[in-house]
Each structure stands twice: as C-alpha cells, then as structure tokens.
Specification:
Layout: E1 2-3, E2 8-9, H1 25-34, H2 41-57, H3 63-73, H4 81-87, H5 92-100, H6 108-119, E3 129-133, E4 136-140, H7 154-163, H8 170-186, H9 192-202, H10 210-216, H11 223-228
Antiparallel strand pairs: 1-2, 3-4
Helix pairs in contact: 2-5
Length: 242
C-alpha cells in the first residue's frame, strides 16, 4: 500500500502502481521518496517525457529514444547515460518508469509474439518457418521476420517483397533504409506511429503520412516493412487500421 498525504494506493511487489490511472505528481513524489530521491526539475523533465511518450504511443521510450526526446526539448542541457544514471541510480528505465507511472519498456519481439497471433489475417502471404533463396535456406519467424539478421541483403529483400506482391522502388527503399537505420541506432523496430513521427522529423512530413506509407506497404509499413528490411517485428501495438 502506498500512502500519500490524502490518499492510499495499491502497489505491486516491485513498488509500481497497480492502477496506472491513479498516478499524479504527489504519487510520483511519494514513490521517489521510497527510493531515496527528491525530485528535481531534471527528474521531472525525464518523467514528463516518459509520460508524454507513453500517452502518445502506448509504449514508453527505450533509453536512446528517451535521450533523443530530452535533447529535443532541452537542446542546451546535457542528457547522456551518466546523467540519467545519476538521476535514477537504480536504473533509468526501471526507476523512472516506476515513478512516472508507466510500464517498463520491453523488447519488440517479446511484445510482438502475442499481439501478432491475435491480429494476423488468415491470408498470410509472407514466408513462414524458412525460405530458400540462391541455394540457401533462411530461417524466419512465424511473423515472417528473419531469424539471422546479419544474413539480410538487398537481393533477399526483393525476393521477400515479391512474395508479398511488392516490387521495390526508390520510395520503398527510403522507408526500408530508414527502418534499418532506426533499428541499428535504437535497437528496436518502430511501430507505425513512431515510424511516422521520426520520418517526419528526419525526412519530412510529406513522406511520412499514413496514406503514403500504406500505399507502399499495404500490409503495414511497420509490420510488413520490418519483414522486408530484415529486422525483428516492431514493438508495442503495430500498424493502424486502414
């Protein structure tokens, strides 16, 4: 049980709120105090980014994306691994998400396994189990994503795309290259809302709209794009309804 000045709240064994909807600033301060922290303006900058990101995308940011968002909001301030560790000595993702009243970020594949099974259409067109190309066998997951990411190449991507009825153009490759750069920078494949957000920031909004991306990847720019780009399935909720 968590006691604040005026209320009491149920907490889980790890000290997190049982009901995230009960979070408020007083709760955050009480949770922080239990960890021996007095929240400063810099703590609140992190907490606010965590909460805003979660409310926008239904997943909290992993650390590298958290740092990117913090730097964007506070370009003159220094936010790096050492700074975040000093602010949240028990681990920025574990401790700050607890205090911010949001879940801990999870790796994309862990979240994807259950989500895709419940949403997959019966007319699956992507490869499953394995695929043969140029005399070699490539293992793929049931979501169609390569098991061995390092074996991907552009010719294999074209082969995988044709299986799904797509002839890759420069426009497709711009999205695929962005997905790959994002993954190898941040360590996760972005779900579609996150893909749209960062493509709009880095490339321009005209090539990051829902309509444009779905015209290229009708089965979902995040789900289908990650398959063809040779990446793990995206984290969190996947692609929007068309």
């Amino acid at each position: 049980m968590l006691l604040t000045e005026n209320s009491s709240f149920e907490v889980l064994a790890d000290g997190r709120l049982a009901n995230l909807n009960e979070w408020n600033k007083s709760v955050a301060q009480t949770l922080a105090a239990r960890d021996g922290l007095i929240l400063s303006d810099r703590h609140w900058q992190v907490i606010n980014v965590m909460r805003d990101y979660y409310q926008a995308f239904n997943v909290p940011p992993i650390k590298k994306l958290l740092i990117r968002e913090l730097k964007k909001r506070n370009p003159s301030d220094v936010f790096d691994d050492a700074t975040l560790q000093a602010l949240f000595p028990k681990g920025v993702l574990v401790q700050s998400t607890k205090i911010a009243g949001v879940p801990i970020p999870m790796i994309d594949v862990e979240l994807e396994q259950e989500t895709y099974q419940t949403e997959a259409a019966p007319d699956i067109e992507h490869f499953m189990g394995s695929l043969n190309f140029d005399g070699e066998s490539f293992g793929v997951t049931y979501t169609g994503n390569l098991v061995e990411l390092h074996r991907w190449n552009s010719r294999l991507a074209e082969h995988m795309a044709k299986q799904e009825g797509i002839e890759l153009t420069e426009e497709h490759w711009e999205v695929l290259n962005f997905l790959r750069e994002f993954y190898f920078t941040y360590g996760v494949s972005p779900m579609v809302k996150i893909l749209m957000k960062y493509m709009a920031e880095d490339i321009g909004p005209e090539r990051a709209s829902k309509e444009y991306l779905y015209s290229l990847f009708p089965k979902g720019p995040s789900r289908q794009g990650s398959r063809i780009a040779g990446l793990p399935a995206p984290q969190g909720c996947l692609d929007m309804d068309i």
